[in-house]
Design goal:
The chain is α+β, with helices and mostly antiparallel strands. Helix content is 39%, strand content 16%. The chain has twelve helices and eight strands. Strands 3, 4, 5, 6, 7 and 8 form a six-stranded antiparallel sheet that branches. Helix 3 packs antiparallel against helix 4 and helix 7 packs antiparallel against helix 8. The protein is elongated and about 85 Å long. The mean pLDDT is 89.
Length: 297
């Protein structure tokens, strides 16, 4: 359940109607007076607020919860949620040009956050709008990932089109003569270096969202890792290719795969060269999505 500091509602007692409950009642098309609200049992008030904090309001659950209000609720035309893909003109107009909210940031807010800004903006109370903006958006108006309280959030990708995504990344591991000789002869004590590194890269590609905090889980359709020995440089070149049909790109999956494979090479050969150099790790190419194709020169 979400409560805002600017709303000045005590979550333990809910003597006042929080913004979450207002959203639930607006979606259900029901008006309840403060006196009627206070006659509801606390579990009912909590149920209404919980419904309003959800991504989609359970209208029937709200109607059941308010049945005991006295005076009873009054019906009105249900209020639709503000759009999720762009900032409503009324909201941006009330905030002014100096506090513009990028559409990407607006989309990353929760449904309750968007409703609250829209609702408060429509009331024409600048001080309350200032407080709501500071708490919900704050100094992160130019960031799609940072929350006003110092936390982080994932970018919403639900409305992005599903397209074929592909990314290729590269990494290198440079080593001394002894380590490279062991690699060529395939007689490292820890076993098959190249095979294990290849497996590590593929596994890392599939688990990227567990490693990089703000990456979305992606259903990969292909992940491959190729390792080439460079006799002249005494190094291993690693190339990771990742593909998916999804709403977000797979660049991080490819780079994570290359990195994990490189670290595995280091781990399995470090007994012969602890000074091995890993890197650079870089994106070679990507395709798919709104940003189109990219190739690293």
């Amino acid at each position: 359940m979400t409560f805002y500091r600017f709303d000045e509602v005590d979550p333990s007692g809910l003597d006042l109607v929080p913004m979450a409950a207002r959203r639930a009642l607006d979606r259900a098309g029901l008006k309840v007076s403060l006196a009627g609200w206070k006659t509801l049992e606390l579990p009912a008030r909590r149920a209404i607020a919980s419904a309003g904090a959800a991504a989609i309001v359970d209208v029937e659950a709200v109607k059941r919860a308010v049945r005991g209000a006295n005076p009873p609720t009054e019906p009105f035309d249900a209020i639709e949620s503000p759009p999720s893909d762009h900032v409503p003109t009324a909201v941006q107009s009330a905030l002014g040009d100096e506090r513009r909210i990028p559409d990407a940031l607006w989309a990353s807010l929760s449904a309750l956050d968007r409703y609250t800004l829209h609702k408060v903006a429509s009331r024409g109370k600048p001080e309350r709008l200032d407080a709501a903006y500071d708490e919900i958006v704050g100094a992160t108006a130019t960031s799609t990932h940072l929350a006003p309280d110092g936390g982080v959030r994932m970018v919403g990708v639900g409305r992005k089109p599903v397209t074929e995504r592909r990314a290729v990344a590269e990494a290198r591991v440079d080593m001394n003569d002894e380590a490279f000789a062991r690699l060529v002869r395939a007689d490292a004590p820890k076993g098959d270096v190249l095979g294990t590194a290849r497996l590590a890269g593929i596994q890392a590609a599939k688990r990227t969202s567990d490693i990089v905090p703000l990456c979305h889980p992606v259903a990969l359709t292909h992940a491959g890792v190729r390792l080439e020995l460079d006799e002249e440089r005494k190094s291993v070149r690693i190339e990771a290719t990742v593909e998916a049909v999804d709403r977000t790109g797979v660049e991080m999956e490819a780079m994570t795969a290359a990195c994990a494979a490189a670290l595995t090479v280091y781990d399995m050969l470090k007994a012969f060269d602890r000074g091995m150099r890993v890197g650079p790790i870089r994106l070679l190419a990507k395709s798919g999505g709104r940003s189109g194709s990219y190739e690293n020169p």
